[in-house]
Amino acid sequence: MDATDTLSLTEHSHVTFPQGMVLDCGVALRRMDVAFRTYGALNEARSNAVLICHALTGDQYVAETHPFTGKPGWWDQVVGPGRPVDTNRFFVICANVLGGCMGSTGPRSARDNVTPPAPWGTDFPPVTIRDMVRAQKMLIDDLGIGRLFAVIGGSMGGMQVLQWAVDFPDAVFAAIPVATAAYHSAQNIAFHEVGRQAVFSDPDWYEGRYWERAKIPARGLAVARMVAHITYLSEQALTRKFGRRLQGAAKGSSAAIGMFGDMFEVESYLRHQGSTFVHRFDANSYLTITRAMDFFDLVTDHGGDLTAAFQGTKTRFCLVSFTSDWLFPTAGSRAIARALNRAAANVSFVEIPSDKGHDAFLLEEPDFHRMLAGFLGGCAEHAGLT
Amino acid sequence: MDATDTLSLTEHSHVTFPQGMVLDCGVALRRMDVAFRTYGALNEARSNAVLICHALTGDQYVAETHPFTGKPGWWDQVVGPGRPVDTNRFFVICANVLGGCMGSTGPRSARDNVTPPAPWGTDFPPVTIRDMVRAQKMLIDDLGIGRLFAVIGGSMGGMQVLQWAVDFPDAVFAAIPVATAAYHSAQNIAFHEVGRQAVFSDPDWYEGRYWERAKIPARGLAVARMVAHITYLSEQALTRKFGRRLQGAAKGSSAAIGMFGDMFEVESYLRHQGSTFVHRFDANSYLTITRAMDFFDLVTDHGGDLTAAFQGTKTRFCLVSFTSDWLFPTAGSRAIARALNRAAANVSFVEIPSDKGHDAFLLEEPDFHRMLAGFLGGCAEHAGLT
């Protein structure tokens, strides 16, 4: 990546808002790009739009081959013709989050009013989940959609779903927050902080101005990704996938201990996860987005009472958690369900048995997918969608 | 730290074995130092010796002010006059593990047959938990002790307790493995690997020859310590200690998001934990010892049957786990208890209710301490200790 590269990201489909946006931190972005993809067709009544919100390291390429990695869309099993989020029926939209690195305004974008053009880098202002959602709202308005039939997302995507329901209740008919929480826990903040420190420790970090040297803090970012990846999996999933199997020469009993080149399979897998990640994700975006998650706290935002956040809502909620998810455990979803019930909201809550950990929401989980299709079908009936 | 420093560690009380030891990896150490501390007095029958085995980042300074950090001994609440491991009654020994950095032979020790003298560094051969225990056995023999009244340790210390009971059953009257397991799990190996990669990523790592440049890979080692520290605490402990409290200016709602200088209290705590650690611990030792833990697997060592490891044992076992310990969960101790029962061994197993996570074994836990005192008292009676 060189400095030119960091500015040549406009090949992603996007809309530019020349008026920009004032962020929660007080900084006014002078202009703002929101990159997005759509699948299916908007009906005449403009009533069949489903917004998908992506997670920390996701992007807008939900249900198509990714232009950079060549891999299938990250929710290919969920979104598509005949899939739970059926693109024969729904018009699906997914936008790259503000602060991201796939075409929406973020640390790799050109800084306002700087000649010659240069990226923001670490000077990119901090964004909140609320900022991300307001940028998406501008996109939805621009597309001429008054009300979204549904907003769906897992993990940080689920935080956005909740924020949508809180900030724009009349624009959300149904909300499906998956594997998420109303605030980021102390443990999750701690894991993010470790990742950030790993990036800061990389000799190629250069105080965040790595793009000036045509470098990326690859080792630090890989370590950040590795630690995050462990938190996405359950102990059971790790054990099933790798157990204590060794690769290379060092097999047999513990007496066969090798040098550091000999690895357990889980080590080699993590190194691979770390090293592939750094080529598709910008370190400054990673810092910006983890920070947004850390600061997410709908409870404090509403004077310590989550119920107040949802007072009077007409949105139909379906909360989903997974039994083996220790990053966003069921207790977090249950707390949201309780607050919604106290607000007399329309709420379902399903805990899906799975041993795949937090990642379950991205993987083949037939129970989850059936539930999703069923809930959307029921809501479509109530909304009078044919 | 300069190269001279790394060789001047002989101020720790130690015994030198000029015959050295052949390690499990096949490398013969030409000489071997074992640094150790003792508390209390050995009785005439030499029957009141208690060996304490320390954990990953512990050392031999169990029950006295640490000569480097000036802090109280790491098990000051457990070992001492009138404490659960009562030094008025028992002769307590603790040795720095082989591969450590507090005076026992390890990566900071002078390499065999090299002129001018230079430390081993990353060329220090890999060691196993079994190697550590054999070095301790040589120390115990040297002290003229035929049988230890008890061997006690938590975490990696517990692994050593188990290895003692397996390799030298007649030399161990009572064994107390605390918060440990018969093998290191895939998840735990994964967390260790992240820590190692963080060290390798540090610009001051210099392929492990940092001492030649008078450097330490402080940032990488701090990141390793930070991730490990999170795993030592429970989510409840982190929340109770820090919650989502901010320090500095950025207080109030999530809209008050600050720049990266503004921190949650948990971040500041972790940074402190990381930065103090690097001054008392050697990076190469950290790599060596984490590797030893990763390779620990008593099940595989015994053809997949842990029961075989303990066949015919006369040792009295007391296994201890803590409810909120997710690094070494109760299931691991229960598996050992089952294997011991199948071997018709004398075994107690206590799960202590605690919300302090893995660290509980090092903290004020009155139930644990009462249990320890009670079990040792009962065993002392059986052993005919007055």
What can you tell me about this protein's structure?
2 copies of one chain form a homodimer. In chain A, the strands form 4 sheets. In chain A, strands 1-4-8-5-9-10-13-14 form an 8-stranded mixed β-sheet, with helices on both faces. In chain A, strands 2-3 form a two-stranded antiparallel ribbon. In chain A, helix 4 packs antiparallel against helix 5, helix 4 (about 185-200) runs antiparallel to helix 8 (about 285-295) and helix 5 (about 220-230) packs across helix 7 (about 265-275). The first copy, chain A, contains 12 helices and 14 strands. Chain A folds into 2 domains: about 5-185 and about 295-385, Rossmann fold; about 190-285, Rna Polymerase Sigma Factor, Chain: A (Orthogonal Bundle), CATH 1.10.1740.110. Chain A is globular. Helices cover about 35% and strands about 15% of the residues of chain A. Chain A is α/β, with parallel strands linked by helices. At the A-B interface, helix 4, helix 5, helix 6, helix 7 and helix 8 of A face helix 4, helix 5, helix 6, helix 7 and helix 8 of B.
